[in-house]
Amino acid sequence: MHELYPILSWTLTAIVLLAVLMIFAASVRNGITPMPTSRPVRRMVMREIGRLPEGCEIVEAGAGFGTLALNLARRFPLCRVTGVENSLVPLLVSRLLGRFNRLPVSRLVFRRGDLFEYPYEQADLIVCYLHPAAMRRLGPILRERAKEGAKIVSVFFAFDGWEPDSAAVCGDLHRTKVYVYHVRKHPLDVRV
Ligand SMILES: C[S@@+](CC[C@H](N)C(=O)[O-])C[C@H]1O[C@@H](n2cnc3c(N)ncnc32)[C@H](O)[C@@H]1O
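Above: the input entities. Below: the structure tokens describing the complete assembly.
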């Protein structure tokens, strides 16, 4: 039995190293790490979302390790949460998290995919925590694909050229902002 310990420990080390390398490669490709939102920011996100009607479709664009999506699924038990993530290791962790928390796929599901390719047309609420370049790219995509009036909650970063409904400041170390938007297909028409 003792002869097995070095083999086990080397195998475990190799797996951890491979996972770290995979996360690193995906982070370079995506321009952002899978860093989860902190607890105070998660609380602020929930507050900014407010109440949701039964049957709401929530999409988290870039779900990372799935902690925010899990909190959303717990907070809104009558809604369905879909986390979209293209980084394999965080995706696997998020799926395990869902399983451990006994959340059925009817309430929480994690899909492997590119958030810029996702259709969004069913989403009533879209939540994201990305980076400025991703926000510049995602803004026009959501205006085109998401339905009129869909709510968007963005952690830290704003959309270029969109007027937020609100921008709450969290009391955390970074004074993180949480922006709330609604999709307006023709924003200029609305303002006239
Ligand atoms: C800062 S993390 C946010 C994690 C999670 N949303 C949270 O708030 O706890 C951003 C996530 O977006 C993912 N991401 C970035 N670009 C992506 C893309 N094009 N398609 C899918 N996921 C992407 C990253 O892999 C990362 O996990």
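Note for the figure: The beta strands are 57-61, 80-85, 108-112, 125-128, 151-155, 166-169, 177-182.
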